[in-house]
Amino acid sequence: MIGPVRVVGTGLLGTSIGLGLRARGIEVILADASPTNLSIAIDYGAGRAALTGDRPQLIVVCVPPDVTAEIVARELESFPDAIVTDVASVKLAPLAELRARGADVSRYIGSHPLAGRERGGPLAGRADLFLGRPWVVAAHDGISYQQATAIDDLILDLGATLVEMSPEDHDRSVALVSHVPQVVSTLMARRLTDAPAASLNLAGQGLRDVTRVAASDPELWVQILGANAAPVREILVAYRDDLDRFIEALAEPAAPGARRRVAEELAGGNAGVSRLPGKHGHDRRFVSLTVMVDDTPGQIARLLNEIGALGVNVEDLRLEHSPGAELGLAEISVLPEAVTRLTEELAARGWRIAG
Amino acid sequence: MIGPVRVVGTGLLGTSIGLGLRARGIEVILADASPTNLSIAIDYGAGRAALTGDRPQLIVVCVPPDVTAEIVARELESFPDAIVTDVASVKLAPLAELRARGADVSRYIGSHPLAGRERGGPLAGRADLFLGRPWVVAAHDGISYQQATAIDDLILDLGATLVEMSPEDHDRSVALVSHVPQVVSTLMARRLTDAPAASLNLAGQGLRDVTRVAASDPELWVQILGANAAPVREILVAYRDDLDRFIEALAEPAAPGARRRVAEELAGGNAGVSRLPGKHGHDRRFVSLTVMVDDTPGQIARLLNEIGALGVNVEDLRLEHSPGAELGLAEISVLPEAVTRLTEELAARGWRIAG
User: Fold this and answer.
1) Same domain for A17 and A158
2) How many whole angstroms separate alpha carbon A327 and alpha carbon A132?
3) A160: nearest CA in chain B?
4) How many domains does chain A have?
5) What are the respective helix, strand and coil percentages of chain B, to the nearest 5?
6) Across the beta sheet with B110-113, what order do the strands follow?
7) B81 near B55, Cβ under 8 Å?
8) In this structure, is residue B53 part of a structural domain?
9) For the range A278-284, what are the long-range contacts, defined as Cβ-Cβ under 8 Å and sequence gap of 24 or more?
10) Cα dist. A11→A64, A125, A199, B327 in Å?
């Protein structure tokens, strides 16, 4: 177990780190330039305010990429015995800036938890945000992650999986699996801005999935894309080459070979998506069942009361309300061992189970 | 209620239509070129085999787009009293081909249920597949949907929402909300085919969402994209223009104006995705408030009971449950006119409102 951890920046990631460490009984010291965010995070149970004389063993800087190097440098100076890490989505740029600032990088080791949500801020924080997620430790020439065992402990304590990677490999990897998908999604969503509402009413899950991350914070993403421009650009250029071929094939869909070329691109997409590990990103710990509920007041409360009376704990609940439909769908997540009995008992009580 | 319905093609859509109609007690006659698929669909409860002398009132052709017109023409000829519809994802191409074949289009009215799953085949069929989903009826000059009341009944019986649209508007709309997202997703997934496994291990929900539809059946999509090539191509060209600007801005991310251009694209993406109706947390018809709830059984039910007692209908509810935190967050969507009173009344009853 690690000693006191100082978390600088109490947004989504900082607050989640605080909540996760506090749940393991670890002392967490919180700091934030915004007194409002700081007091929310403290009230939320993510840690305590900083005190004079604090001697943190580890400092985790959870601030936007643009100011990461500046804050890391300040923390390295203020706490000369501490190891300092950060959680920014790019790793080469902050390291280069730290070196340019003449910071003591022998105590800095960059890291990046691959976890996030669309919503930001302390109230979006969750102790289990990092559970089962990769957490890259991007050691540079001046330090190895074995020198910084506190980071190892941090990652294990939060239930994440440590992945060692050079800063270069990290930045290339996230360009592919995170930054380019963000651009692709954004550009798709851009096409919706002046579309007729009647067209958008036909949207299904496919469009929603493709454009979901386009709702992310533009300010943060300007920083990320600016700091990782070269690898992102390289992949986008390759993407555009494929797109050019697609557009060309559609110009004369009946021309010889046009169908084959489209089919090859589609099959290539199949092959690419099949390489992604773990088919579903859904929470593996729970299974869900969907119950149809009439669109009248009190129905959900009645359902939850009956589930509670059966002694089953609802881990997560999501209500789908389709415009125009008489029915809502309540998707209820429960522990796997409860689902069969719950399904039977609810059906016996007249609830319609959709699947 | 409609009379006997003949469903031709017992894949996902045909079987789901059969199951949904059977659940309403409507007689369903099934036909399929594949005896295997047909017998699976019959065993599954989607309907009965065709008999000599069947007099269906309505025929629903659920075959791949490439052969839709051929089968519709055959059905129009075989059953001279029946109204014939189809469910293909494109509407202009089949109509043009039917006219070219000299078919009696005064009894044909194209339609398209906006529903589907990644999995195909009769065993993927679900009686509730169309529940709350839009179902476009694309009347042509020779027929209005009021002439074809059986189609109205079909759509209502399956719980879908009837949307009237010209074949042209339909094809342009689905190019935007379905066909272009398919291409965008496919091209992103293509980039994964030769990526290092270590990079793919960092993939999160964002990449999974963007590439989910890339797993769709290439054969079906070659047909769809070929049949709707012009509108799809037009949108892809506009998409490529934006992509070009993005790539240019990333070539010199520190150049004057580069950041602003990237920020504008990202904000445009925000604006586009916010226009999607019925999206969780973004539904413009409702506003949401977040209530903190203790992590004890029965709290949500108590909250919903009190909201119900206030006469307020919960349109949508999402429960955030963070194992490490002492609190859950219930995000409740209500009609805008109810939110002020509800916030006050809940606060007066001791609930903590988070925002």
Assistant:
1) yes
2) 35
3) B202
4) 3
5) 50, 15, 35
6) B110-113, B134-138, B161-164
7) yes
8) yes
9) A280/B208, A281/B204, A281/B205, A281/B208, A281/B209, A283/A316, A283/A333, A284/A132
10) 10, 8, 37, 17
| Nearest beta carbon to residue A188 from set B134, B184, B218 | B184
Q: How many residues does chain B have?
A: 355
Residue A150 lies in a domain: yes
In the β-sheet with A316-321, what is the strand arrangement from edge to edge? A352-353, A287-294, A327-334, A316-321, B316-321, B327-334, B287-294, B352-353
10-residue block means of pLDDT along chain A (355 residues)? 90 96 95 93 94 95 96 97 96 97 96 84 88 92 84 92 95 98 98 96 93 92 96 98 96 92 94 78 63 74 84 76 58 84 90 75
Domain boundary among B114, B133, B165: B165
Angle (CA) B335 B341 B344, round 5°:
130
Residues across chain A: 355
Query: What's the domain range around A303?
Result: 287-353
Residue A329 shares a structural domain with residue A203: no
Same domain (yes/no): A298, A349: yes
Produce one character per residue of B30-49: b if its CB has 16 or more CB atoms within 10 Å, e if not.
Answer: bbbeeeebbebbbebebbee
The one-letter amino acid code at B188 reads: M
pLDDT mean over B17-22: 94
Rounded CA gap, B193 and A275, in Å?
7
Tell if the CB–CB gap between B187 and A269 is shorter than 8 Å: yes
Q: What is residue B355's predicted lDDT score, i.e. its pLDDT?
A: 55
Q: What is the CATH number of the domain that holds B313?
A: 3.30.70.260
Output the domain CATH number for residue B210. Answer: 1.10.3660.10
CB contact under 8 A, A270 and B189: yes
Look at residue A322 and give its three-state secondary structure.
coil
- In the numeric block, which tokens belong to residue A146? 């074995």
* Contact yes or no for A267 and B218 at CB 8 A: yes
| Residue A125 resides in a domain | yes
